[in-house]
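Entry:
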Amino acid sequence: MEAGGQRPVATRGHVTVIEDEASISDPLRSALEREGYAVSVEPTGNGGLESVRRGEPDIVLLDLNLPDLDGRDVCRAIRQTSDVPIIMLTARGLETDRVVGLELGADDYLVKPFSMAELVARIRAVLRRTGDRATPAAAAAATPTAIEIGDVAIDPATHVATHAGATLDLPRREFDLLHVLMAHAGTVLARNKLMDEVWGVDWFGSTKTLDVHIAGLRRRLGDDAHEPRYIHTVRGVGFRFASPAELAG
């Protein structure tokens, strides 16, 4: 707090910290408040879910080790009802843990211990990415046009994608990725172009996340990476979605 016991005025948005260890959440609260964020701390997964249901946070910092629920289950539950940005905080730095977190819909992943400067930078970057509607992926959503290629359809206006008439349950990033690929069907999109369009030019994380989300889309479409029908890998370049002519047969 500042002199006189007054909290700084919150100008940057509301952060919900879902973390049960006060030794971590208290310094986080102080640092983020100094940066101009309003901060609420929820020591349990259920409390964090209720905070999201109330529509409080602009971004969630989610610890994986909680006393009542596994943080991954909390992430999964949030994604069923909300697109609020999520940064996972964990002491586990294994690639498999990061991949699982991203597949569940987390926007970023930070391994403890981390510096407050890095955390603040990542929060700002995630909020820019998720709030920026000027990127090509978001620009397409700004002028919503439904696309149907073969038996795959996507409608950004309603945020609904279907395959063979069945609704696809896609996390936000997979939806945006599918939208970009289908909007450029038949054209090879370079990896860095896809990253820039879907994750933004200030993405901090590994480009491995693109492969994770491509794999997720293929799984939901029943696509075989070795003999793909929909999403084709162009080695050394990037990916392309099959053209209407290819899927017409």
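Residues 1-10, 133-142 have pLDDT under 50 and may be disordered.
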